[in-house]
Design brief:
The structure holds 2 protein chains of 2 kinds.
Chain A lengths: L18 H17 L4 H4 L6 H16 L18 H13 L7 H15 L2 H12 L5 E4 L15 E5 L2 E9 L9 E7 L7 E7 L5 E6 L8 E12 L3 E2 L5 H13 L4 H18 L7 H27 L7 H23 L9 H10 L9 H13 L7
Parallel strand pairs in A: 1-4
Antiparallel strand pairs in A: 2-3, 3-7, 4-5, 5-8, 6-7
Chain B lengths: L6 H14 L17 H9 L12 H12 L9 H5 L1 H4 L7 E5 L4 E2 L6 E6 L2 E5 L6 E4 L7 E4 L6 E2 L2 H36 L1 E2 L2 E2 L4 H27 L2 H26 L10 H11 L5 H13 L4
Parallel strand pairs in B: 1-3
Antiparallel strand pairs in B: 2-6, 3-4, 4-7, 5-6, 8-9
Helix pairs in contact in B: 1-3, 3-6, 3-7, 6-7, 6-8, 6-9, 7-8, 8-9, 8-10
The chains are: A alpha+beta, B alpha+beta.
């Protein structure tokens, strides 16, 4: 008996891409195929490097010209009001290719939308067009030496004087800071969780010093940023004083599922399996591990579908985003462990994209909120477990 | 892509919730392993729920949702093969269905009216006489039985066997999904109620994280099962079954650990889900069998 009745006239819960979505994915793939240079995979190493930062500006400008940088943004800001699935397909294809947008993926995913929602007209006019044209790199000044997962402990201080603020403090683990034009910076304007404010700070402001931190992730990825009496006008503050916590929570909900890591992980797994098959090493035991890694990738992808579906419907995403994130962390771990065990040359002169993937994957459980924080949110908000005493 | 239930699907879900409400509690005097419910069987038959997959507005995805929902109940009847395999491939054959692999005991075999038998890649159909079947004493939380004598097997073609195996995987994943969610839910209740060192166990981070990881696994099983029911794709079915058995292996151990001695008792309901899960871990070749299927369908072009 066939299952022909599965294709119904009504629009039921389903897992199919429609023709428009399939066409959009093909368009993005064709663009990548045409515009990525032959040496792209070697260049993909070091997402904040000089070479990739320079490339990302050329590439993002080309994307913008083709209408593929911010299709999900409003027309007013250079987009075409495309839906959340379009944004997801775009992100998936970009990440699977090794993320040629470099740090600009943050502009597209959350910095631009956050400014649209919370920014003043002047802030929008100043900052959004360069993002929509692919001309600018931002960095995220959240973490500090004493404030990582416990963001409320941050100490960087913004002192109001007249119509200016003067910012003193230190940020750390700041991605892309070496090439960033602007920092989305958190600083304390009063004590307590509700005393944190957001400032949009030009990185060429006097008093800012950036030091690259050599890291396992690759060249130019993480930095220390020192702020010594950095003067910014009132107009650089995003939202009201003390509003940072609310804005950041909205931002992190976008960011947690902003990177479809499973897309590159899945592609790298296939590449590793192909190499093992070609050399007759895809045998019992190895097959089991590969299958489990593929399963983890697919589970993570479906979790992300749930989040995108909620976004599409205007539903505020809760701890489901943490579950999606943890599933993605698991997928990254399974694939990197598989590659390390079975294709060890990936980290020693072998396939450069396998190596670049490894370097990005190791931060999956750390960046954008540690895995343990996600698990706590799942425990309380999805499962309903009693909260820990504080 | 649309992950919200239609009004038709939501109506079926609501009707199932209403029906299930009568079977949510284990009788206090039941201290056995397999809590088979003739009342649930009758209610499902009366409501024609076994044929949900054949209703044009509903289809296999709704059947998978139904299997998932009903598997959360502490009592059991033969649902997953009847809802997801029989309607799609053997609609003219009588239920209950059962699966016998390598002549081993299987769930619901003693009362089955149609049996799928497998031996390696070969698969066939048996329509047994009651005399050819017998129950088996078991600590699995399904009524277990076996074929006690040689029976006539009508072999399936390779293509039909492959299709059957695919829907068996989807049925397996949907059933495991429901069982996992119920096992986790009862564990949450215990962790919130049980106090040690002056506070609920639920407030200890080592436990919170462990159960949160279980919840992520179980959620993944559900999505993979539903997607496979929709696409009817061999690769999706293999991925769903593998993730289901892999997750169940870990979660069964973890939830028993979290319930401590309480979970060892037959007074508590936990085993009604975990000892069904244990029965499902070996089906269709277990994790190794699903991994081979994933390799066959997902890595063939690599």
């Amino acid at each position: 008996m066939s299952v022909a009745y599965r294709r119904r006239k009504i629009d039921p819960m389903h897992f199919d891409w429609d023709e428009q979505q399939l066409a959009f994915r093909s368009t993005v793939q064709a663009f990548l195929s045409f515009h990525l240079p032959p040496d792209w995979e070697a260049l993909a190493h070091g997402p904040g490097s000089h070479a990739q930062s320079a490339f990302s500006k050329r590439f993002c400008a080309q994307l913008a010209h083709a209408g593929l940088l911010v299709p999900h943004w409003p027309q007013r800001w250079g987009g075409r009001d495309a839906d959340a699935w379009t944004a997801f397909i775009l992100a998936e294809e970009m990440w699977a290719a090794g993320e040629p947008r470099g740090g600009q993926y943050m502009n597209v995913n959350w910095i631009g939308p956050t400014l649209m929602r919370f920014g003043t007209d002047a802030q929008k006019a100043r900052y959004i067009p360069p993002m929509a044209h692919g001309e600018t790199i931002w960095c995220q000044g959240f973490s500090e030496p004493q404030a990582g997962s416990d963001l409320a402990a941050l100490r960087t201080r913004a002192r109001a004087e007249g119509s200016n603020y003067y910012i003193d403090g230190q940020k750390v683990w700041t991605s892309y800071a070496g090439h960033a034009d602007t920092c989305f910076l958190l600083a304390r304007t009063a004590p307590g969780r509700n005393g944190i404010s957001i400032f949009l700070v030009p990185m060429d402001s006097p008093g800012i010093t950036v030091r690259q931190i050599p890291s396992l992730i690759g060249e130019g990825d993480i930095h220390e940023v020192f702020l010594d009496d950095v003067e910014v006008p009132d107009s650089a503050r995003l939202g009201d004083e003390g509003q940072a916590w609310d804005i950041v929570r909205a931002v992190l909900a976008l960011e947690r599922v902003g990177i479809p890591r499973f897309a590159l992980a899945s592609r790298m797994l296939s590449r590793a399996v192909a190499e093992l098959k070609a050399t007759g090493r895809f045998c019992t035991g190895v097959v089991d591990q590969a299958a489990q890694a593929r399963t983890a990738c697919e589970a993570a992808r479906l979790y992300s579908f749930q989040i995108v579906d909620q976004r599409q419907r205007g539903i505020t995403t809760g701890a489901e985003a943490s579950a999606a994130r943890f599933a993605t962390i698991t997928a990254e771990r399974r694939v990197t462990e598989f590659v390390i065990e079975h294709v060890p040359a990936a980290l020693a002169g072998g396939d450069p994209l396998l190596r670049a993937h490894h370097q990005r994957a190791i931060v999956a459980g750390i960046a954008s909120g540690a895995a343990e924080i996600q698990l706590n949110m799942i425990a309380s908000d999805l499962l309903g477990l009693a909260r820990e005493p504080r | 892509m649309d992950l919200t239930l239609t009004s038709d699907q939501a109506a079926v879900a609501a009707a199932l919730d209403q029906l299930a409400a009568h079977f949510e509690t284990k009788p206090t005097d039941f201290h056995g392993f397999a809590l088979a419910s003739q009342g649930l069987e009758n209610a499902l038959a009366e409501g024609q729920f076994f044929d949900v997959a054949l209703v044009p507005e509903l289809g296999p995805l709704s059947a998978a949702l139904a299997v998932e929902r009903l598997s959360r109940l502490p009592c059991t009847v033969e649902i997953s093969l009847s809802m997801l395999v029989r309607p799609l491939l053997f609609a003219d054959l009588p239920r209950p269905f059962a699966l016998v692999e390598y002549k081993r005991p299987g769930r619901f075999v003693a009362n089955a009216r149609t049996i799928l038998v497998t031996d390696g890649e070969a698969m066939g159909i048996v329509q047994p006489t009651p005399e050819s079947l017998e129950p088996v004493d078991s600590i699995y939380a399904y009524p277990m039985g076996r074929l006690k004598e040689r029976v006539t097997v009508e072999p399936l073609s390779a293509a039909r066997a492959a299709s059957t195996r695919k829907w068996l995987r989807i049925a397996l994943a949907a059933e495991i999904s429901g069982l996992l969610h119920a096992a986790i839910a009862t564990t949450v209740d215990h962790l919130n109620d049980r106090k040690q060192f002056g506070r609920p166990l639920a407030t200890f981070q080592s436990i919170r994280h462990r159960l949160a990881e279980s919840a992520v696994l179980a959620g993944g099983v559900r999505w993979l099962a539903l997607k496979a029911a929709w696409t009817a794709d061999d690769a999706d079915a293999a991925l769903a079954a593998l993730h289901a058995q892999q997750s169940a292996t870990q979660i069964v151990y973890d939830v028993h650990q979290m319930l401590g001695a309480m979970g060892m008792t037959l007074e508590h309901s936990l085993h009604l889900w975990t000892y069904r899960l244990k029965a499902l871990l070996s089906e269709l070749g277990g994790r190794a069998g699903q991994a081979c299927a994933v390799a066959q369908y997902c890595f063939n072009s690599d």
